[in-house]
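Response to reviewer comment R2.3. The reviewers asked that we include at least one raw input/output pair. We reproduce the pair for Lipopolysaccharide biosynthesis protein RfbH here without editing.
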Amino acid sequence: MKDAKARILEQVRDYHGTEEKEFEPGVTAVWPSGAVFDAADRVALVEAALDMRIAAGVSSRRFEREFARYFRLRKAHLANSGSSANLLALSAFTSPQLEDRRMVPGDEVITVAAGFPTTVNPIIQNGMVPVFVDVELGTYNTTVERIEAAIGPRTKAIMIAHALGNPFAVEEVARLAEERGLFLIEDNCDAVGSTYRGRLTGTFGDVSTTSFYPAHHIAMGEGGCVLTDNLALARIVESMRDWGRDCWCEPGEDNRCFKRFDYQMGTLPHGYDHKYIFSHVGYNLKSTDLQAALGLSQLSRLDAFGAARRANWSLLREALDGVPGLIPPRATEGGDPSWFGFALTVEPGAGYTREGLVAFLESRKIGTRRFFAGNLTRHPAYLDRPHRVSGTLTNSDIVAGHTFWVGVYPGLTEEMVRYIAESVRDYARKNS
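Raw output as returned:
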């Protein structure tokens, strides 16, 4: 059987191939995002499948250890998506185990309007009130001043994403949160490998989240993770991810605590099987070993992927410097982003529109994406939801109408990136 498996995996390596198609401008699709896989990734996935590791198991636990080690944090818990990771991260603060610090329905959470909905949805799903603040044009992040002005008597937490991989001023925000007794949830889904003042994003908050959807820095197909240095919060996250159970045995493991039939919790009878005692309202949000095996293979190239993203972004930034009618992106002061995308805002007074530029790029097979929701408060899903706006959302409205982004992911060659830049520059100069 071992020989058969080795032969199959060798065939998988051969099947993967290394031939690259020649880039044809206007013919070859230039995607804004995507996963980059090599033969080792394909072999890792197939090997897990051959071993029928279809649930969370040895690869999942190993990935959690290695991913936590990358961030120098104590705990990482895999989930089935970054969105589920966000749900777990915020829901953890509703645990009765936090006693008087527990968040309850009606409490407020500060977030940004210009972002992705699943940063905000956990707030609503837990019966809390999102407090929306505006962002800066260029960095597309909010500021400490805007966050501080939004704090009210019922504010209990801050939950914000690093915009397109660009860190917000997270050290200062973490300090503000500590001073005001607020929880900080870092949505790090677009920013794995980014640093702020020399420290990895995802390490400043009480908890942080990542995503392994193919558009992100490493890919598992689907998947996400919750990370924390706080062991009590980690235990709550694990419970909520694993149906809400109080037991911490791994699947297939029994009586790790040596008192499985000796607990008395809630109003249950003494000795009720600990494997079926539930201390939280939870879900089954685990990932699988198929995903984790692929993630482990990808993790070895995380720094190389980040270097490619930075190089592609820098090439675009230099090539588009001074293009009329465009607000170029910029890194937050103190940040070294592992960029998710390259954002461009067409100035309201430019001689052309975002719609026109995007249509031109798409006609040349250059993929574009909106800056996510633009302004969440204007979407049908949120019109009748309780929320509060602090200050104005002027820039969020500009983002909704005038901003889009193009790719910098490692699958783009230098030739592709230069083609993007030339296309943007040519259109802008002809239509200004």
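The CA atoms of residues 307 and 404 lie 23 Å apart. The longest strand covers residues 155-161. Further pairs are available on request from the corresponding author.
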